Amino acid sequence: xxxxxxxxxxxxxxxxxxxxxxxxxxxxxxxxxxxxxxxxxxxxxxxxxxxxxxxxxxxxxxxxxxxxxxxxxxxxxxxxxxxxxxxxxxxxxxxxxxxxxxxxxxxxxxxxxxxxxxxxxxxxxxxxxxxxxxxxxxxxxxxxxxxxxxxxxxxxxxxxxxxxxxxxxxxxxxxxxxxxxxxxxxxxxxxxxxxxxxxxxxxxxxxxxxxxxxxxxxxxxxxxxxxxxxxxxxxxxxxxxxxxxxxxxxxxxxxxxxxxxxxxxxxxxxxxxxxxxxxxxxxxxxxxxxxxxxxxxxxxxxxxxxxxxxxxxxxxxxxx
Length: 320
Fold this sequence. Notes:
Residues 21-216 form the Formiminotransferase N-terminal subdomain domain. By secondary structure, the protein is of the alpha+beta class.
């Protein structure tokens, strides 16, 4: 059993904490085809029952999986965050991932820079972005030191709020290196062009690098395009995105998705302002101009309210 510094809290206080001060962690790992690796990672996730996997999204074409984890955060007498079960759970899952996945042998239709590619913390319920940022920086130091993996902090976890897509662009994340639409192995220099925030400057080709951040809730929404013309899909994606002069606070990628379709993967940075309906409408309009059919898009995760609700249901037997 993982030792918690809060084992001595009385039951009522611990129950209140679990219900109110919650953080969500989305952990993206570059693997979805190796069942043994995923089983090992998921066993590690279950070592501490105070962390709950509320969702899992895997995509074989992308060869990528995302785990959505939730637990509480606790504070000292002055109100400073000092502990969350998420910390040790994420480290255990990362350790299992590094032990079972070799980035040099990995390929997929989604960009990535590491075995543990991205870890982002979101505040839920009454938790704050500062608390999410504290945990992101704590986990980043652990991963950099324990696994000797370069770690880049982003958004609220970074001292100047550097954006994730900016760091990825600097590191060559968006450039496919296989058949013009696939990512395989470690294709970048082993000496990084930018100094990481944690860990070494030299990259292990088997492990790659990790991005770790904290930010308000971000929705991920994918729109299938019924065409294998990835160039057309990329043009549409560019025109939908804020960077391409499209919808503000929307980031997109045009990707091959299976043998007979492509997909526009979207990050909605302010989903309450620019939501999925506007993205869907814009994609459909632009695709019609290209003579392409579009399917209804789909979210890859639950809403933050639903995630908190599922967490409460899953732990209810433990706290009653």
